[in-house]
Backbone:
């Protein structure tokens, strides 16, 4: 997989490094220099998101050759940053009040249409790009059960749009767009997992072929049983500590 993705992985790492450097240097920079670091932070974030979308598109299509495969990857590379913008704006709606919240609502409205449109186009193109996915999606009776994923996704996205146009999002329901978008991402992951299983690289490598030896998997299992609950616990704790609206910084 890395043989096919060396360049986008390298560019993604450069973008992530640039994000971290820009974030840290902006705090220490003089006021005249802060806009420059803002632009670099934006550039690093955009580069990382675009590269992630390109890698996802190449991965889903099984690294196929031909003009349609890069076009498919480019479509996901354009749609994924919009999904991140929408999710980030929804987070700001939940965490802020006043002028910043109003700006976040506007950003979310701008990002909603490209994200929803990109999701529809990608969903239409995925079975076209892969015969394996097409066969799995449109086989009965699996088609009936699978239809719940796009239908629920459409309902959730329309719910997000409706909330953005209502007064509720500025009050007690400010958390709703973020939670609904999390559900959209989870449904997208479930749809992708269903489409690819049991392939690691579609039509090339299954999970059984890619798996480590049983002894190695036992060691990994022990590590997972320790680390995953710890990650869940401190993530839940962090959300609890930093829950609620962000206000003016005060010290006791």
Residues:
């Amino acid at each position: 997989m890395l043989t096919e993705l060396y360049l986008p992985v390298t560019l993604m790492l450069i973008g992530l490094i640039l994000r971290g450097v820009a974030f840290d240097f902006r705090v220490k920079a003089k006021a005249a220099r802060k806009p420059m670091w803002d632009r670099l932070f934006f550039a690093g974030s955009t580069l990382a998101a675009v590269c992630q979308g390109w890698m996802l598109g190449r991965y889903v299509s099984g690294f196929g050759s031909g003009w349609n495969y890069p076009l498919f990857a480019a479509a996901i590379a354009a749609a994924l940053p919009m999904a991140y913008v929408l999710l980030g704006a929804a987070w700001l709606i939940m965490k802020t009040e006043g002028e910043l919240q109003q700006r976040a609502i506007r950003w979310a409205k701008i990002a909603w249409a490209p994200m929803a449109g990109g999701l529809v186009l990608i969903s239409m193109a995925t079975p076209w790009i892969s015969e394996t996915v097409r066969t799995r999606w449109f086989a009965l009776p699996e088609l009936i059960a699978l239809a719940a994923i796009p239908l629920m996704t459409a309902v959730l996205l329309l719910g997000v749009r409706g909330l953005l146009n209502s007064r509720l999002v500025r009050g007690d329901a400010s958390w709703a767009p973020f939670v609904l978008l999390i559900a959209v991402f989870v449904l997208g992951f479930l749809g992708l997992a269903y489409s690819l299983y049991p392939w690691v690289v579609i039509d090339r490598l299954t999970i059984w072929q890619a798996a480590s030896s049983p002894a190695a998997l036992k060691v990994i299992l022990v590590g997972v049983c320790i680390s995953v609950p710890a990650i869940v616990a401190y993530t839940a704790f962090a959300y609890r500590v930093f829950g609620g609206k962000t206000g003016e910084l005060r010290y006791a």
